[in-house]
Amino acid sequence: MIRPFLSCVLLLASAPLLASSFAGSTAGTSAGASSKGSSSSSGDDKVIQAAREEAAGFVASDGRQRGARLQAALLHLRQRDAGAAQASDMQLARAILAR
């Protein structure tokens, strides 16, 4: 009876240590990743990555479901790339998912 109780206590006591270790490692990775690229490309990636879930919903609903993040990403892509200006919303949404 004491052994399972002690195991639970040790597990609960170590949880904050594991969480802080994880947070430190991901924070270091994020900071390192953002310093590698230029500020404009990291901003581009954030806009596109934020729209991935909405792009999936847009494609799955055959264009009936459209969110604000997807709209922002479509506009962003069209402003950045002349080829994207000629593409349909569906083509761009699929391209976002392919990234």
TrEMBL record:
Region of interest (Disordered), ranges: 25-46
Signal peptide bounds: 1-19
A matching Pfam family: DUF2388
Keyword terms: ATP-binding, Helicase, Hydrolase, Nucleotide-binding, Signal
MF-aspect GO terms: helicase activity
InterPro entries reported in the protein's UniProt record: CHP02448
NCBIfam families: conserverd hypothetical protein
Name the record gives this protein: Holliday junction DNA helicase
Organism lineage string: Bacteria, Pseudomonadati, Pseudomonadota, Gammaproteobacteria, Lysobacterales
